[in-house]
Amino acid sequence: MTEVEYRAVELDSSELRAGQGESIGQIAGYAIVWDTPSTNLPFVEVIQGGALNGVDLSKVIALYNHDFANVLGRVDSGTLQLDIDKHGLHFTLDIPDTTLGRDVYTQIKNGNLSGLSFRFTIADGGESWKNVNGKPVRYISKIATMREISIVSVPAYDDTSVEVTRSFKEFTKQSQYKAKVLSILPTFEIDIG
User: Which of 43, 59, 89, 164 is least surrounded, with the fewest CB atoms within 10 Å of its CB?
Assistant: First the structure.
């Protein structure tokens, strides 16, 4: 079974726009930026360009703090727009004229909310691990599903720690095994000249 994972990025409050109609305003930015190393994880993670190719984004919803009772927008209602481009996954969210919408918009405008998180699952074979300069790096080449983006006050990684820890431990175990095998194998010099 594929575990659901969450990742958080900074939300740029300069992307606030005045609203029209049922919306009090818009926020926009990038939920995912391709080929950019993560921070605040026990390892480095890079989501590679093309990782969302073929992923159905038509049911993605925008939430506040990953709470399904706090819906801010949806792709299928037209209040959330997602576009994959050369930089990553760009979003534009029409903030609803509701108590929650006004509160979230004001908190972003005041700089109190600046986190954005996204929920996804990795496709089978869609990740690889490498040691780069002594640090473990996880490359995500294929995302299976993208379920939501959330405006968050405190990005939470507890929901992903089981999957990440298991995957990281497996990578470490494989690296140690390879090093041990290489250390006991005899070395031969062959003259091919």
Answer: 59
Q: Three-state secondary structure along the chain?
A: CCCEEEEEEECCHHHEEECCCCEEEEEEEEEEECCCCCCCCCCEEEECCCCCCCCCCCCCEEEECCEEEEEEEECCCCCEEEEECCCEEEEEEEEECCHHHHHHHHHHHCCCCCEEEEEEEECCCCEEEEEECCEEEEEECCEEEEEEEEEECCCCCHHHHHHHHHHHHHHHHHHHHHHHHHHHCCCCCCCCC
Residue 190 in any domain: the answer is no
The mean pLDDT value of the chain amounts to: 78
Residue 120, domain extent: 4-184
pLDDT at 26: 85
Classify residue 193: in a domain, yes or no. no
Q: What is the pTM of this model?
A: 0.70
192 belongs to a structural domain: no
Number of domains in the chain: 1
pLDDT in tens, 86-127: 988 888 899 999 999 999 988 888 888 877 788 899 999 999
